[in-house]
Amino acid sequence: MAIASRTARTTWQGSLARGAGEVSGDSGALTALPVTWAARTEEPGGKTSPEELAAAAHSSCFSMALSLRLGENKLEVTRLEVSSTVTLDEVDGLPTVTTAAIEVTGTVDGVDAAKFQEIVDEAAALCPISRLFAGAKIEVTATLAAG
């Protein structure tokens, strides 16, 4: 049995170059987010893209995995700042998501930088979205901030 299933839908009108769509999620948290090809490949202009949505999923998933692993190590998280950059590039003439780069800055008492990095690496292996991106190159950079 699945732990969870979530659904999002996109309604698209028009051609790829001139068309536009809206992305909404069944939870109500994502409501009519505008999406266009230009927002995906040029300037966003207040619109989202599949890569931005994937980056949001990756950064939030990684935050949860890291929080779990830190807790399992009996460490109290003051703050985690996790950003994800998902890159769309051309591979063999096709648009392809090639990398997902995670940057983590954590404020965590009672841990040194080496142990923090070890726990970050464990979180990278645990995060389900990281595993979804398994074909992409995933880079994780971690910084332990002073508490």
Q: How far is it from the N-terminal to the C-terminal residue, by CA?
A: 41 Å
Output the number of helix runs.
Answer: 4
Biggest pleated sheet? 3 strands, antiparallel
* Mean pLDDT over the full residue set: 94
DSSP, total strands = 6
The CATH homologous superfamily of the largest domain is termed: K homology (KH) domain
Look at the structure and give the CATH class of the largest domain.
Alpha Beta
CATH topology of the largest domain: GMP Synthetase, Chain A, domain 3
Number of domains: 2
What order do the strands of the largest sheet run in, or round the barrel if closed? 1-2-3
CATH architecture grouping of the largest domain: 2-Layer Sandwich
Structural class: alpha+beta
Task: List low-pLDDT spans.
Answer: none
What does this structure look like?
With 147 residues, the chain is an alpha+beta fold. It has two domains: 8-41, no CATH class; 50-145, GMP Synthetase, Chain A, domain 3, CATH 3.30.300. Helix content is 32%, strand content 37%. It has four helices and six strands; from the N terminus they run βββααββααβ. The protein has helices at 37-41, 50-72, 113-126, 128-132; strands at residues 8-13, 20-25, 33-35, 77-91, 94-108, 137-145. The strands form two sheets. A three-stranded antiparallel beta sheet has the order 1-2-3. Strands 4-5-6 form a three-stranded mixed beta sheet, covered by helices on one side. β4 and β5 form a beta hairpin. The longest helix is centred in the middle third of the chain and has 23 residues, at 50-72. The N and C termini lie far apart (41 Å).
